[in-house]
Design goal:
It is found in: Cell membrane. It holds the Pfam family BPD_transp_2. Its main location: membrane. This is Simple sugar transport system permease protein. The chain has 359 residues and is mostly helical. It has a single domain, classed as Orthogonal Bundle (ABC transporter involved in vitamin B12 uptake, BtuC). It is 75% helix and 1% strand. It contains 14 helices and 2 strands, in the order ααααααββαααααααα. It has a two-stranded antiparallel sheet. The longest helix has 33 residues. The radius of gyration is 22 Å and the shape is globular.
Length: 359
Amino acid sequence: MMNNKGKQIISSLLFPLLAIVISFFVSVFFVMWAKGYPITRYFSALGDLIGTIWKGSFGTTRNSMTTLAEITPLIFTGVANAVAFRCGLFNIGVGGQFVLGMLAGALVGTIPGLSPIIHIPLMIISGIIAGGLWGSVPGFLKAKFGTSEVINTIMMNYISLAFANYIILRTRFGVPGKASTATIEKSAEFARFMTTSQANTSIFLAIAVAIFMAWFLWKTTTGYEIRAVGINPLGAEYGGVNVSKNAVLSIVISGAIAGLGGATHVAGVTHLAQDFMVLPSYGFDGIAVALLAKNNPVACIASAVLFGALNSSSRALQISGIPKQIVFLIQSIIIIFVATDYIVKYFSDKKKKGAIMNE
């Protein structure tokens, strides 16, 4: 007989998998419309869609490396969002914290004369500090004044863009005429798997962070308190948990992970920070990654693989006559179904509480 914990694990995995399957089955109709297939060729269109996504993301070594480079920042931002969600907070500012991590990494990376043993950890620490400090502002405002972290983090995103662009375009840290910082030193670069690809060893750091955060949330007292606040803040406070402290801590940790992702993105992929017209999409994509993973940091790895594969296959889809926008359609359907699960669970819990109160 399967114990209750096993049933809970299967139940938590079943709905995200169902959401993925349904999203593909629904998206096929748009493939049929784009390619002019009749309804009798439904499964042919399904095969075209899945096959093209697979070939575009993992069909060749080069495509696999491109996908790997796309997956890495999604793991960081997915885990960052998952930590905040676990405390019942919505950190929309992950994108801005990622930007500050990129900026900090780009500036520290240009320091000359350092050994890689010192330079790479220094870049990592700078990203953690920059993202954590940026996250501490909305966290403090939430704890001190009860203001919405959603509104504050959205505003902080715009401030992060303006601040980063000011540093890049109007200070000596930017390269005149290039709208970017100087290229980082070789000693600050993560090793790449191939010279023709941007995939690099920061993927191992991303996986390590995801595993560590899972251990932290489920095996430490602080992690337990963060989860308790997310489940029931009033009950947690009644049990002696400092709700305000844990709210600040969770957003600081979330921001630190996002900032770490930004710094490693510079160290492994871009090797500099250009002026930002818009926020990098990784912050908002990380929300989808965390939701699909049910806010489990380890599950964020698998979720990031899916979203990374979808993103990197968009060109192959377009070449085969399938609009690349279908990637966003699949992602949207997945998010809708996962959100529906949260809504159903919310009203189910509310109904149970009402029944208990009436007894």
